[in-house]
Every structure is written in structure tokens, then in C-alpha cells.
Design goal:
The protein is an all-beta fold and 225 residues long. The chain has no helices and 15 strands. It has strands at residues 18-22, 42-44, 49-51, 57-62, 73-83, 88-97, 104-112, 120-127, 132-139, 142-151, 163-170, 175-180, 183-190, 199-207, 218-224. Strands 1-13-12-11-6-15-4-3 form an 8-stranded antiparallel β-sheet, with no helix packed on it. Strands 2-5-14-7-8-9-10 form a 7-stranded mixed β-sheet, with no helix packed on it. Strand 3 and strand 4 form a beta hairpin.
Length: 225
Amino acid sequence: MKKNVQSWSLLSAVPVLLSLMMLACPVTPKQADDALVGKDGFEEVEELFLQGDEEGTVLFTTSDSAWWSPLGYTLWALNGEVQQPFVFREVKCSKISGAAGAGYGIVFCHYESSDPDTGETMLTVMINTLGEYILGEVVEDRFYGFVPWRESEYLKKGYNQGNVVGLRWDSGESRFELSFNGTPEITFSDEVEPLHGGGENGYLVVISPADIFPANPVQVVFTEQ
């Protein structure tokens, strides 16, 4: 059954929960107004993230109109890997088809909180084919953006371009380091509840209102490095 969904836009606006430090130039944290991806627009759908022929490869594909909405949808799945605590992860992400500006990427430090107001929570990094990325957190099926969509000179633009999204925990500095294609982009630390120090890993893909179903499917390939 098709669900009612809220806005797919990930330019959300809540008080920033992460401490950010750019490696190249400083970031002014965005003070936004509301989380724009609501519970009905953010859903775990394991059956759309299928194991590929090569080890460590996951294929996402859909042209099912049940996942299309004029407001959009964000779909995600876990891959069974648990890091407790989180140490390091690299995933090559490549979009084959679908709306150019729609996000796709990874989730990490996912866990189920005992606090009913938190529920499932995770950190996320998404990129798109325009050479942009967004960083944020999901709490109780709502997305909160810490860094709005911004361009990175280290991301390759276009379709069928394998961009390696890397995350490393720096225990000395108590910070995560985000890199693209082996070059550090930004460091950040989680300092406000719910804290994320470890948990399960996975992937996520945004279905945009600009996607055309069933004529043009959304296809993304993820490869663990």
C-alpha cells in the first residue's frame, strides 16, 4: 500500500547537534526550522537492496510507482555489519540512473534506543551526481541535517562515477573524519543525545519527485571497500 509521505528535501533545519570543523574552510552551522523528512517518508526496505554478484556489492533498483510521491521517499537498509565501537568504513557509491539531484549514500552507527522518544537512530552521509553531499542524523524516523547540501571538489560528478565515501573515528580527537575518494573533507563530533559511537551499518537512497516511474528506474551500486 502506498503511504502518505512528507517532503523528501533533506535541507532540514533544527539546532545543530554536531560540532563541525572543515579541513579546508570553516562551516557556519545551519540553524533550520523543521525536519522535513517525516516518519512516513523514511522507511527500511531490505528487499530493494540486493547482494550483487561480486562480494561486498549491493544493488539498489526500483521503478515501482508505490515508492514515488510528489513529496518523495527515502529508503534504507542495514547490511548486517556491526562496529562497536565504530572505527572505519569506506563504500564506493555509484548512481546508474534516476534524478541527478536526489541523494544516495550510507548510514552508520545505527541502533535502537531504549528511550521511546528516540527509537531507531543513525548517522547518515549522502551524495548526489552533482558533486554535492549532505551530513545528518536520523532520530525516530526523522532526518535532521547538520550540513545542508554543499559541493565538494573531491566528488566526481555524473552517472556511473564511483565515489568512495570514507568515515574514520579519530579516538585521539574524539571526532569522525569524512573523506571523499581518499581526501579528507570534514571532521565532526556527536556531542548531543542521542550519541552515536557504534552500531550497525547500511545504505540509503532517495526517490525524488523528479524521478519518472516506471520509465526510468532509480539504480545505485554500493561496494564495500
